[in-house]
Amino acid sequence: MSSGLQRRRVTAAAAASSSPSSASAAAAGQTNGPNSDPDEPSYHSETFSSENGHKIAFDPRDLEEGDERAKQPRLTLMEEILLMGLKDKQGYLSFWNDNISYALRGCIVLELAFRGRISMQRDPSRRRLPLCDRPIEVIDDRLTGEVLLDEALKLMKTSEKMSVAAWIDLMSGETWNLMKIGYQLKQVRERLAKGLVDKGILRTEKRNFLLFDMATHPVSDTGAKDEIRRRTINVLTARTVVLPATALVPEEVPFRYLRAVTMVCAAYAANVLENALSSLGHDARDRAFGRVDELLGDYSQWPFAAKPGAPTGGVGVNLAQEISDELNANKDKELQVEVVAAALNVFTRLDSIL
User: Which of 24, 74, 137, 175 is the most exposed place for a label (fewest CB within 10 A)?
Assistant: First the structure.
């Protein structure tokens, strides 16, 4: 039987079993094509011998992407907020919700910061500006695999440096500058819903609304939405917040506690938080809204106003310490976390919160 090359993705363990001869042979064959861009990095395939003697070709980038995907949650912040706002059986958002579109653009900035793609500009003079008016920059332009994130990242990479508030406004289409109208991200909710369909969380149906038909996206994986509800209630009502690793948010995801706080604050700004708290009684729901008000106030400043040991009214007594531990473990990412605080600062200006 022929031992020709086969192309497939492989695991890091399989790559480690590559024989030195095959790896060196692949490295020796690494060349740039005649039409390649000299500014572009040169990529090549490597091979290893499988147990049956076949030689398997793989791209080293596959391994890098696989490692990064393992450190990212299954759903982006935008997808979690959209899922929280969708009616489970009807599959559409409230027609009276004016805030969610703007909040979703803010979540794009938040997600890019959490994934290490953008940060505040490393310039001490930036502190003279209000937090949400400080310029941000792209520090890693690798694709994330999420279409909306990659589209926004490309815009930020090719544009002049602008602030968090400016980017959220531009991506929402809230600008009088006709030269920048092209920065608006269109059909964000529909594209996010289709992404959730691809991930098996939603399904697509046609529903008739008087004179026209509209695609709706009912929830097909109720377990995912239930997990988001449990995480939200945990953060806002539990005396001690414990976030166990789950299929949606694995243990390897950095800033798990800060992500959870950011998610509930974004849901509050998007006017969908009440959907996650529907199982609570009236008084408990009021206390939860009061708690998210506190969280938004504490984490929309930089440095964060929440301090370990500070009184919290008996809710989330460990939360500030957990987030402080995350920051101490990622001191090299403080400029990225500053972007998170700036985006939450923008959320405090929305009409539903004022």
Answer: 24
> Could you give the CA distance from residue 126 to residue 163 in angstroms, rounded to a whole number?
10
Given a contact cutoff of 8 angstroms between Cβ atoms, the answer to whether 160 and 49 are in contact is: no
Q: Are residues 221 and 99 in the same domain?
A: yes
Closest to 338 (Cα-Cα) out of 136, 128, 73, 107: 136
Boundaries of domain holding 116: 71-347
Q: Are residues 66 and 111 in the same domain?
A: no
Token pair for residue 271?
A: 């006017």
DSSP string computed for 102-127: HHHHHHHHHHHHHTTSEEE-S-GGGG
Residues 266, 124: one domain? yes
Query: Ramachandran region of residue 91, left (φ > 0), alpha (ψ -120 to 50) or beta?
Result: left
**pTM (2 decimals)?**
0.81
- Is 319 within 8 Å of 305 (Cβ atoms)? no
Closest of 290, 340, 279 to residue 313, by C-alpha: 290
Instruction: Give yes or no: residues 88 and 216 share one domain.
Output: yes
Q: How many domains are contained in the chain? A: 2
Query: Please, what is the average pLDDT of the chain?
Result: 85
3-state DSSP assignment of residue 122: coil
Residue in this structure with the two tokens 């500009």, named with its chain if needed? 121
pLDDT digits (tens, 9 = 90+) for 42-87: 444 455 454 555 565 545 555 456 667 778 999 999 999 999 999 9
